[in-house]
Amino acid sequence: MSGKTSDDARRKVLKGAAVGLAALASAGRSRAETAPTQNGTLPPLMDPGKLHTAGPFKSQPQPWPGLASHMTPRPDHGEKTYRGSGRMAGRKALITGGDSGLGRATAIAFAREGADVAISYLPQEEEDAREVIQLVQAEGRKAVALPGDIRTEAFCQKLVTDAVSGLGGLDCLVNCAGRQHYHESILDLTTEDFDWTLKTNLYALFWIIKAAIPHMPPGSSIVNTSSSNAYEPSEILVDYSITKAGIANLTKSLAKQLVPKGIRVNAVAPGPFWTALQVSGGQPMSAVEKFGSTVPMKRPGQPAEIAPIYVQLASTDGSYITGQVFGVTGGTGVPG
Ligand code: NAD
Ligand code: MG
């Protein structure tokens, strides 16, 4: 095939894909169902506001902690779309909450970038976790499954030790596990609930980071998960927002402290993302039905749309980035 003919053929394929995707996006379907996955075919350029569904979403309450595999539509974690380019070759990463949502998208991306990956999750999430383990193994990477509850220091220490022995070392820690449970009034927020959220989001982060640092060689990186709620707290997420502000703050102090060890620390602050946490008590169902509609892009993000920033921060491509919090919010400008 001559250069011109093959260029023409490529343009035809891309044009066809663009038309198909635009039609499906306007029909409220996800790019994950349709994106070209053949080697060398780039996704077409299109309006990001139309790239994924804007809902409305059907009411779908799930018992906590929720399963991505039981959501409608299923979130796009990049299963069919993320393409790596060796940016994390040989790296060894522990990702908490790696079974679903942002952690799962990060696990898929890291494996496709060449990393071995350990995921932590709750025993009730085995179904989601199995899918992630298979996806990581499909890339020829080592996958380590570490179920358990991170609300005790003893488990957090064991989690890190098991990740280190399973991976043969540790040079990347992504803290994605989190608890978000809404309460309309502070009067309904019990001490047990408050403790649950703080134990999961702040104490566990502290315990896991503390256990991980001694294993991490210079060049390692820690990526935490804050939230736009750290900056613009929702009135029904009082306890959660405290923890997310704490995570952003810890990221900055720890980054300075760990410069001499050669370990970078950053955080991602997501806006609304379509994940199991939202449908298992994170939001009232009335808010789930119009989830994402209040941000300028008027749709929620899909987990696949945030994984690239975790890759950037974890890989040596981010070598001069530490102590920063990056918003991925569909246009709110938070943090600004
Ligand atoms: P998700 O439910 O898919 O992931 C959260 C994970 O946390 C769960 O899969 C679970 O494995 C883990 N987890 C919770 N409690 C645990 C416990 N006690 N022990 C062990 N693991 C536990 O939801 P997600 O939205 O992908 O959440 C990932 C992170 O992103 C969370 O920290 C969340 O606060 C943050 N975040 C999410 C959004 C959003 O809109 N989805 C927005 C801002 C921040
Ligand atoms: Mg989960």
UniProtKB/TrEMBL annotation:
UniProt-listed InterPro entries: NAD(P)-bd_dom_sf (IPR036291), Sc_DH/Rdtase_CS (IPR020904), SDR_fam (IPR002347), TAT_signal (IPR006311)
Entry keyword set: Oxidoreductase
Cross-referenced Pfam families: adh_short_C2 (PF13561)
Region feature (Disordered): 25-86
Ranges of biased composition (kind: Basic and acidic residues): 73-82
UniProt keyword Oxidoreductase, yes or no: yes
PANTHER family: NADPH-DEPENDENT ALDEHYDE REDUCTASE 1, CHLOROPLASTIC (PTHR48107:SF16), NADPH-DEPENDENT ALDEHYDE REDUCTASE-LIKE PROTEIN, CHLOROPLASTIC-RELATED (PTHR48107)
Family designation: Belongs to the short-chain dehydrogenases/reductases (SDR) family.
Protein name: Dehydrogenase
Organism: Gluconobacter frateurii NRIC 0228
